[in-house]
Structures are given as C-alpha cells and as structure tokens.
Amino acid sequence: MSGKRGLLRKGRAMLEGRTDRVIWNFGTCAVIVAHPGDETLWAGGTILMHPESRWTVLALCRPSDEAVGSHFTEALEQLGVSGRMGELPNTPTCSTRPARDILQAITALIPPGRFDLVITHGIFGECSRHPRHEETARAVMTLRESGRVSCDELWMFAFEDGGGKYLPRPSRDADLLISLPKEIWQRKYDIITGTYGFAADSIEAQTTPRQEAFWKLGVRKR
Fold first, then answer.
1. Do the beta carbons of residue 121 and residue 137 sit within 8 Å?
2. Which of 49, 59, 74, 170 is deepest in the core (most CB within 10 A)?
3. How far apart are alpha carbons 160 and 20 in whole angstroms?
C-alpha cells in the first residue's frame, strides 16, 4: 500500500482543500474504466452536468453477457457521449492480469489526439478489493507518463469502503468533491438501475454517490 501511496503523491497536484466549485474549461474529455457501468457510477453526474464537453467513454472489459453491450450503448446515449468497449475478458473480481494486457487494451481503444481531461479509477480502487480497477488506474498513469495517453489533467475516482466495512464513500483526502443536484443524481441512478438493471438493493444501486470525488494529478502544460 505504501508503494501505491507514493505513486499517487508523485503525480498529484495538492490543492488547498476540497471543493465543489470546479472551474470547468475542458472541451475534450475521456473516461477510462474497467467495466461498463463504472463510468456512470463514479462519474456519471459530472458527465451529465457538462454536456458542452465532448466526452469519450472507454470500458476495457467485454462481459460474457452480450446484453451488457446493449446496456452500455444505451447508457452512452443517455449520458450524451460516445464510447467503445474493449475485448479484455471479464475475469473474476479478485483475479489479476499482466500489466501489458491492460496497457494494450487501453491503447487499442483510445482515439488519437490530446484530451483536456482524462478520468479513471483510483490506484486503490473504489471498493475492496477489485484489482482490475487498480490495474486500470496504474496503466493510465503509465500511458500518460509515456505520452501514449495525452491529456492536460488526470483525475482519479477518490472513494473507499474501509476495507469492505461499509459502502464506498468519498475519500477524506479527495482533492475535488462535487455535489450533484438532485435531478442529476436521479438521472444517474436511473441509468444504474433502469439501463444497467442493477436491483434497488444491489451494492451498485445503494452506493450510487450523491457526491463525486476525485484526486487530481499534476496539470501538464501543452
């Protein structure tokens, strides 16, 4: 864990404190997640609040249930964004994959060009324990360092669940804490339950955050 925290500190631009007043000047944005639905659960409100931006959502895993693909397409329409699903097998939650597989999955999906903002998982994940989320975060950081993912800012989901003791909640040391208007949260919740089909008593539905939290990594000048 200490190594992960050192990696995060290396890239972070430490702010004065958390805020829900974000100066939004991002024209092109990408959200890179491990699974369909992650984009809505952790960043759907932010996406819905900024339809003026051009969003691209990339989900690395193609679940064996082909219906999820149609759910993903419908969710993108409701979010007002474009996106693609990858070919990475949707292996069990606790399993890991070689780093090269995750790197290749991202580079195969991401379109050429530079993004103003890229959003992805936190390097600790959002719940205990999902290595695929953590692997995705590390891969995005690696690709940014190498220039294969080009962006001015990188945000990472900042949630934790106390080692599985409670539902995921915003991390206390998150750089950005964005409170969602009631109608925005409801649209997000409807996508999670109605479009993706998670039951009201599922962890996903119960978790659906009313505040979206992010760690903000160093701004990279053009």
1. yes
2. 59
3. 19
